[in-house]
DNA sequence: AGGAATTTGTGCGTATGTATA
DNA sequence: CTATACATACGCACAAATTCC
């Protein structure tokens, strides 16, 4: 397990690819309480703007957290923090 | 011309590279009628999953068939079987 | 009622870096 | 050195459903 700084930014060229960095950062922010259970995290577009990555990268990071049971997605509504 | 089994899977390390195997398999499936003229074949991502190869490999195989006049691509819409 | 905005789903186009035969 | 393959990333466009005004 790698510790992530919830305030970190994405570093291109780092050993860990951006999508994994973002997944770690988002997980850290959830752990810190930035977004409460059953509440939505920012939209993909917002995360694209905030972290300066492509939408595909955001979606990949989200997919990782969905796979880990941290988030769940509701089409056309948003991505939420699992209770 | 080499005959291909439409139900074959990709074999790494075979004399023919994966992208050529896939091109042959897809051509065989088209010939068998899996996909009708003017209908789209599965997306690149689906083929990636189905055949266990990289997207670049799928794109190469498709490029071969486009070059042969078997398929045509409509940007942002899909890849279709030529009438 | 209705149309614009929002948000996720899905396609292809393209480029870069790494690894291997 | 070249061809092949894979992983990753960014961009752009359109669809479908929901939400907002």
UniProtKB/TrEMBL annotation, chains A, B:
CDD domains: WHTH_GntR. GO terms for biological process: negative regulation of DNA-templated transcription. InterPro entries: Bact_HTH_transcr_reg, Tscrpt_reg_HTH_GntR, WH-like_DNA-bd_sf, WH_DNA-bd_sf. GO terms for molecular function: DNA binding; DNA-binding transcription factor activity. SMART domains: HTH_GNTR. Signal peptide: none annotated. The keyword Transcription applies. Gene3D superfamilies: Winged helix-like DNA-binding domain superfamily/Winged helix DNA-binding domain. Residues 16-83 form the HTH gntR-type domain. Pfam families: GntR (PF00392). Keywords: DNA-binding, Transcription, Transcription regulation. This is Regulatory GntR family protein.
């Amino acid at each position: 397990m790698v510790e992530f700084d919830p305030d970190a930014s994405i570093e291109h060229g780092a050993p860990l690819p951006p999508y994994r960095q973002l997944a770690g950062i988002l997980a850290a922010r959830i752990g810190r309480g930035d977004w409460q259970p059953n509440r939505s995290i920012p939209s993909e577009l917002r995360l694209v703007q905030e972290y300066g990555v492509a939408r595909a990268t955001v979606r990949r990071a989200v997919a990782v957290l969905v796979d880990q049971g941290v988030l769940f997605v509701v089409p056309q509504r948003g991505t939420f923090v699992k209770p």
